[in-house]
Specification:
The protein is of the alpha+beta class. The chain has helices spanning about 5-10, 15-25, 35-40, 60-65, 115-120, 145-150, 160-165, 170-180, 190-200, 205-220, 225-230, 245-255, 265-270, 275-285, 290-300, 315-325, 330-340, 345-350, 360-365, 370-390, 395-405; strands spanning about 30-35, 50-55, 70-75, 80-85, 90-95, 100-105, 110, 130-135, 140. The strands form two sheets. A seven-stranded mixed β-sheet has the order 3-4-5-2-1-8-9. It starts with 6 loop residues before the first helix and ends with a helix. It comes from Atlantisia rogersi. GO terms for molecular function: metal ion binding; nucleotide binding; nucleotidyltransferase activity; tRNA binding. Its cofactor is Mg(2+). This is TRNT1 nucleotidyltransferase.
Length: about 400
């Protein structure tokens, strides 16, 4: 048996967790860490959030917490068996072990159990199906630890059964593949077969849930391999990707973009050919307005807005920002530079502050230009001169320029 005693594991024992553990121990209910947090701890990482599992029912937990004067946070998780307790300024999400009784490919009706293996059996992937006792003891019914060490992603039990319980698991398979495995193409043939046979089940999954998974896939490793696989296994059309996505462009863009911290939409846009592709993506995935605008911006400008030859390669981008009337053009231009793989220009751009035009209508009035129309024209001309100077001319130079004009 394996016992974990890593610093990351020790660090979990806050005053809050100690109090919670004591309560469960007094009542003889078992409490263990579950799922993703176990996977992270075994990989030597500090888990972002920790789910706990227990043999106590929701009613028993409520009774126990309430009589100990612990505040319960009213989450809607209770019908799935989850209670959230707030102890020492920390939230603890604790879920009763359960069995899925009926599943429809989207959600499950559950009944509670005290059998840890039965609960592990209804989880998606072996690396997510382990439990960790608070003494560091690992409970691993499906060789998840072996798979994690060998960097293998496999479904618990039969792939097709797990997928039919919730078709989103197809995308979770891809996401964890991109997170854990070392090389592309290391799949079990039977898994890919099960994915292919069940792909159209994804048509019934909400766009919002799909987009959450897709974004993580786009920012993970092997994204190129995984997206090609989505086309080969006929998943692409059910998740809003264009039927004839430009895989060559996707290849080109994904090669250099991973290290530049792109937004998911920036990576995805390389598959899209025309602005209708962005619209269709939005219809299926309900992407945010900002994401949609970024996609439209990149599709429109990725070809012709490029660096200048000569000593000021950044100039076209800077001019674009200066001429734009929109607030977040700067961040869109940075995404465009990532898309184009212009790492050096991106760094320069991130250090560049948008200069402020130094002349105001007030300055012109002082110089005796009185009519509003003339002021408007003069300001426009001066702006042009300022732009030609690379935004270097100051107020004095511009005003003396006005005298010449």
């Amino acid at each position: 048996a394996m016992k974990l005693q890593s610093p990351q594991f020790q660090a979990l024992f806050t005053p809050g967790l100690r109090s919670v553990a004591d309560l469960f121990e007094k009542k003889n209910y078992e409490l263990r860490i579950a799922g993703g947090a176990v996977r992270d701890l075994l990989s030597g990482m500090t888990p972002q959030d920790i789910d706990f599992a227990t043999t106590a029912t929701p009613a028993e937990m409520k009774e126990m917490f309430t009589s100990a004067g612990v505040r319960l946070i009213n989450n809607k998780g209770e019908k799935h068996g989850t209670i959230t307790a707030r102890v020492h300024e920390q939230n603890f999400e604790i879920t009763t072990l359960r069995i899925d009784v009926v599943t429809d490919g989207r959600h499950a009706e559950v009944e509670f159990t005290t059998d840890w293996e039965k609960d592990a059996e209804r989880r998606d992937l072996t690396v997510n199906s382990m439990f960790l006792g608070l003494d560091g003891m690992l409970y691993d019914f499906f060789n998840g630890y072996e798979d994690l060490k060998n960097k293998k992603i496999r479904f618990v039990g039969k792939a097709s059964e797990r997928i039919q319980e919730d078709y989103l698991r197809i995308l979770r398979y891809f996401r964890f593949y991109g997170r854990i495995t070392e090389k592309p193409g290391d799949h079990e043939a039977s898994t890919l077969q099960a994915v292919k046979e069940n792909a159209k089940g994804l048509a019934g999954i909400s766009g919002e849930r799909i987009w959450v998974e897709l974004k993580k896939i786009l920012l993970g490793n092997h994204v190129n391999h995984l997206v090609r696989l989505m086309y080969e296994l006929d998943i692409a059309r059910y998740v809003g990707l264009p039927l004839d996505g430009s895989l060559e462009e996707f290849d080109r863009v994904t090669k250099h973009i991973q290290n530049l911290c792109p937004k998911p939409m920036t990576v995805l846009t390389s598959l899209l050919k025309v602005k209708d592709d962005v619209t269709n993506l939005d219809l299926r995935l309900k992407i945010s307005k900002e994401e949609k605008n970024l996609g439209l911006f990149l599709v429109k400008h990725r070809q012709e807005l490029t660096k200048a030859a000569g000593p000021e390669p950044l100039r076209p981008y800077q001019d674009f920002i200066m001429d734009s009337r929109e607030a977040n053009t700067n961040s869109k231009i940075c995404e465009l530079l990532k898309y184009q793989g212009e790492e050096h220009l991106l760094r320069e751009m991130q250090q560049w502050t948008v200069p402020t035009f130094p002349v105001s209508g007030h300055d012109l009035r002082k110089m005796g230009v009185s009519s509003g129309k003339e002021i408007g024209t003069a300001l426009q001309q001066l702006r042009e001169e300022w732009k030609k100077s690379g935004y270097h001319m100051d107020k004095e130079e511009l005003l003396s320029c006005l005298k010449k004009l």
